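Internal tracking record. Fields below are filled automatically when a chain is submitted to the structure queue. Please do not edit lines marked as system-generated. If the sequence contains nonstandard residues, flag them in the REMARKS field before resubmitting.
Queue: standard
Priority: normal
Entity type: single polypeptide chain
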Amino acid sequence: MKKVFIGIDVSKDWIDYAVRKADLQNSEPAKRVNNDLDSITKLCRNMLKHYGQENLHVVFEHTGNFGLLLSCILESFNILYSVVPALEIKLSLGITRGKSDIVDASRIAEYANINEHKLKSTKLPSEVLLQIKELLTYRLQLVKITVQLKNSLKAHKIASKISNLKNIVDDIEQKLDGYKDDIEKIETQIKLLINQEPELKKNFGYITSVKGIGLMIAAYMIVTTNNFTAFDNPRKFNCYSGVAPFEHTSGSSIRGKTQTSNLANKIVKTLLYSGAMSAANHDPQLKKYYERKRNEGKEHQTVINAIACKLISRAFATVKRQSNFVTLAI
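SYSTEM-GENERATED OUTPUT FOLLOWS
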């Protein structure tokens, strides 16, 4: 059992931190330091000096790249820390009034003290996984820009029928070609990085042996599972990616159909649905499963969701067995 919990609210330029001792009812007043190497290093040294490494547990919300430096320095000092989704902290504290970075730091410290039994230590992924993650983020940004340009192109082509807008249409088409090349280059970089690490390359080969799982799904799965170490079974990943169905009933008045949660990684969810559609067309077993369920009256989206769950189960099974997936003859 840890005796001192440090709640940290991370922002771009600074971090606010509050100390909560397990044997006291109130947190110590929150303080602020710059979010830079020297300031965080000094803070870690002071924490170790005053509280001792064996007593410390640092907790902060997931804030993307803003918390990377903090994570690196905490690991260099071997200080136990946990990165927790912001919504989980918010929901756990119930109704609250007011909001500021200092108040948030105190609430995070309080959350850590109350929920110590649920906290899991966090470790940064390898440098290669971090690079792949950043490439995936950049690719997603380019894809969104491409979609916007395509929609704009459609509108301008319609307008060009009554007005001379050929220069605009040509310019957009040229930009689209450029973004297409950029996206392909990013995908090539991702493949090269995966092939650079033997463990990543091996697991990538296993999960892409599952029909319906291509480069993007495999890359996202490897990154979000920290190469299948952050999730110990497919059911948890189903919940994380938002494809796990949950019962929706209450007493005798509510009898809704099962639903998936909105609290999910929507990027992974969208990719899995696309992969499930492909698998329903090209995998003999899943194609037969889809047709059978549809004939039973199941909705298309419900069956596709079930197939997405099957893809996850197959992927985890290949990694666990360390062998490619083999589709049995039917």
